[in-house]
């Protein structure tokens, strides 16, 4: 099942100011409506960045807990609710990777399946997937964020620019640098490791 926002193509939701006013009063119906409207989008963002559905669900849920806590303290979002939610998700994903880096573990996703019966193809596919995951983590957080929004969440350049607070040309430049770096890291990881002293 795909979660698609009913407002695709708009950089600002038509009822954003009404939603935010109702949210400021912690109106249960407004909170439920906001959760229903944005949960799928936040989950999809986290899932793309994390590649683990259980952790992505935890992150998406935590975003809404943080939203309610922030509103209760009087410092929740004031203009761009979608940007605030995705920005919070981005911070939580970064925190997750920091913790994971401090305490690394290796596991296969629950839905992992063998793509082929040929063991050499299986090993090659797994190696390539791992190589891409490692390469993405070596990109800057800004590059990871842009790639996630553009390719994981299928946002337009305009939507991505609004969410990250940059102009369209800056988003294009970040995306170009990210894809160039990713290609270089995947094609020749040994060269990158030698350059970084690994």
Explain briefly what this protein structure is:
With 198 residues, the chain is mostly helical.
Sum up the structure in keywords.
Arc Repressor Mutant, subunit A; mainly alpha; Rna Polymerase Sigma Factor, Chain: A; disordered N terminus; single chain
Question: Low-confidence parts lasting 5 or more residues at pLDDT below 50?
Answer: 1-14
CATH homology-level superfamily of the largest domain: RNA polymerase sigma factor, region 2, helix turn helix motif
Helix content: over 70%
Number of strands: 0
Strand content: under 5%
Q: Largest beta sheet, briefly? A: none
Rounded to an integer in angstroms, the radius of gyration calculated over CA atoms is: 19 Å
Give the topology.
Layout: H1 16-24, H2 28-50, H3 53-73, H4 81-102, H5 119-138, H6 141-152, H7 157-164, H8 168-187, H9 189-195
Can you describe this structure?
This protein has two domains: 1-111, Rna Polymerase Sigma Factor, Chain: A, CATH 1.10.1740; 113-198, Arc Repressor Mutant, subunit A (Orthogonal Bundle), CATH 1.10.10.10. Mean pLDDT is 78; it is low at 1-14. α2 (28-50) crosses α6 (141-152), α5 (119-138) crosses α8 (168-187) and α6 packs across α8 (168-187). The radius of gyration is 19 Å and the shape is globular. 72% of the residues lie in helices and 0% in strands. The chain is mainly α and 198 residues long. The longest helix is centred in the N-terminal third of the chain and has 23 residues, at 28-50. It contains nine helices and no strands.
């Amino acid at each position: 099942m795909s979660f698609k926002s009913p407002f695709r193509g708009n950089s600002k939701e038509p009822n954003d100011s009404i939603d935010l006013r109702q949210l400021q009063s912690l109106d249960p119906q407004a909170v439920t409506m906001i959760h229903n409207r944005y949960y799928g989008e936040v989950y999809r963002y986290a899932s793309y960045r994390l590649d683990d559905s259980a952790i992505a669900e935890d992150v998406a849920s935590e975003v809404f807990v943080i939203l309610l806590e922030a509103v209760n303290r009087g410092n929740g979002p004031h203009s761009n609710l979608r940007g605030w939610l995705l920005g919070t998700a981005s911070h939580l994903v970064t925190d997750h990777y920091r913790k994971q880096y401090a305490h690394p573990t290796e596991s296969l996703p629950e839905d992992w399946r063998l793509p082929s019966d040929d063991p050499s193809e299986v090993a090659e596919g797994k190696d390539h997937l791992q190589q891409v995951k490692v390469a993405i983590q070596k990109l800057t957080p800004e590059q990871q964020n842009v790639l996630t929004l553009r390719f994981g969440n299928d946002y337009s350049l305009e939507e991505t620019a609004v969410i990250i607070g940059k102009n369209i040309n800056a988003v294009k430049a970040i995306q170009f640098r990210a894809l160039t770096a990713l290609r270089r890291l995947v094609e020749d990881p040994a060269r990158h490791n030698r350059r970084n002293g690994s």
